[in-house]
Amino acid sequence: MEKCALVTGSSSxxxxxxxxxxLDCGYIVFGGSRSGTxxxxxxxxxxxxxxxxxxxxxxxxxxxxEFTPHLHLIINNAGICEMGPIxxxxxxxxxxxxxxxxxxxxxxxxxxxxxxxxNETHIISILSTAAHYGYPNVSAYNASKFGQLGLxxxxxxxxxxxxxxxxxxxxxxxxxxxxxxxxSKFSRDKMLxxxxxxxxxxxxxxxxxxxxxxxxxxLHKEGFLE
Length: 226
Fold this sequence. Notes:
The chain is α/β, with parallel strands linked by helices. The chain has one domain (4-218): NAD(P)-binding Rossmann-like Domain (Rossmann fold, 3-Layer(aba) Sandwich). It has 6 helices and 7 strands. A 7-stranded parallel beta sheet has the order 3-2-1-4-5-6-7, with helices on both faces. Helix 1 (13-24) crosses helix 6 and helix 3 (91-110) runs parallel beside helix 4. The radius of gyration is 17 Å and the shape is globular. The termini are far apart.
């Protein structure tokens, strides 16, 4: 059986790098994003996905079902992050973070149970240290990531009879184009490089399937950004 992977947020950043890595590993990859990607590969399927819309999630899942009934690897990666003091955060901005980072994964998992392979499917969620650790000026992001972690902890217990693996990754700040848009003054020399993130991700994906990594926190040796 050819191994199939689903990657949300595949159009850029970590999602794009993850998709390329999995293709190199021989996976058939179904990438979901709103904007699409220029990635061209015979085993890559670029599928439109708005993770905040249940109709879009359902269409995404049904498109995948046309090609395969099973998923060996599910990468829960799509997300947004905006910075600002809570006094400047609008209700709309807060709700968008929840819709993307918390409700989005809920919608995905709500419709994907039939694709699980007992004893085999591996669900990897790209969270953040912000799912464990409160940072100033990212209240919406913090709240949404804490919420996603709660969702995953519940899901692990709900799906325990499938005996599948869940891995929650909690990377520190990663130097991606996302920071260009946020206009932060943090030193990017104190952030993880995408290659460093991918070295950890690759280790997790290629490790023997008899090993599980429930949670893994990793960050630049300088520590947390403040």
